[in-house]
Fold this protein.
Amino acid sequence: MNTDHLVAIRIVSSEAARAHAGSFRKDGVTPYIVHPARVASLAAYFGGDHLAVLSAWLHDVFEDCGDGACLRARTAIDTLPLPQDDIRKIHAITAALTKNPDLPKEARIPDSLERILRAPPEAVLVKVCDRIDNLIDADFHDKEFRSFYYQKSDLVAVTLRAAARTAGYRQAIETLDRILGRMPE
């Protein structure tokens, strides 16, 4: 990564922190911003470039935060010291990762997965890293929630597996498979 990428990460991580200020993970104790930070770290660990890291920081803003936070995040993306093609890709990645609230609940994940597969490949990595982190947190929930969440995560893994491998994110998808209790293929 170059200096512009690091400046961009500072900008979007600050914007994500602002957007999620006062919000907590489902445990009621962990500040929500810990989740995007971990997802961004996982994306970098698994070989993601600056687009993956930037998108990971913002991946839940458009889904979970109010209109003002979304507008500030879009403005922050538009003013990053990056080429316009990078800015376009970050918008495409974050849009693909955002579930459509107008769809019935059971249709939201399949719809998002279809959009992720059409988005720049970094979207696949961010979604896989998001699931890895959420599954780690799932242990704090009751058995019924964990079972349901593992089923949804299995759909994510199965749907994104080939795209993750093609994009060079084999280690990430294999890590998700191991967490789900499957031996990587």
